[in-house]
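Box 4.2: Ligand-aware structure prediction
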Amino acid sequence: MRFQSARQRVVEVSRALADRGYFAATGGNLALRVDDEHIVVTPSATDYQVMEAADVCVLRLADLARVDGERKPSVESGMHAQVLRARGDCHASVHTHQPAASACTLLGRALQVDDPAQRELLGPEVPLVGYAPSGTRWLSGKLARALRPDVHAYLLRTHGAICCGTTLENALRVLVALESLALEQLRARIGARLAGQRAPDPALQRLLATLETHPVQDVIA
Ligand SMILES: [Zn+2]
């Protein structure tokens, strides 16, 4: 089997992301650059708990032709390919449906990054890519136009996020930093709304209390 260790790593990390809520069920996928010409990608619509290394697809980066693997590649392979073609410095691209960042995609704007440690991982802002349906060239084209050399995380409107890194471990650090930032911004926004209310809305108070105790889980496996 070609690129066995990379495919095994994809299995381990996909399982960790599914266990920690970053992939909502089968809603998330990832790609790794394995050499100058090839990437490995999670298969389409897969239960990550039972996925095996042989299920992970090997594709040619230039045209996404399948080189190895029986399964159909993720419908978001086009999105990962745009990232890995444009960002020669990046070896990993991870698409998630992580809860706080996905909630932020409904607000319809980019997230500013002020904290220096977060800026180092994410870049100066997390841009919002306009809506297009999952798995379409329309979506991967919109993402391609939004890609910047200094930004490692992007929100996909009413959908989720995509993060990249020089290594898979760095991409995982980026998506954890994105979730922390998104959670902070949601808390601040709801807190400000409550502060402005003469009679604070109990449902918003409960939501804020839930968000205040919601942990952001690390993924480095
Ligand atoms: Zn998705």
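In the box above, the bound molecule is zinc ion. The first helix runs from residue 4 to 19.
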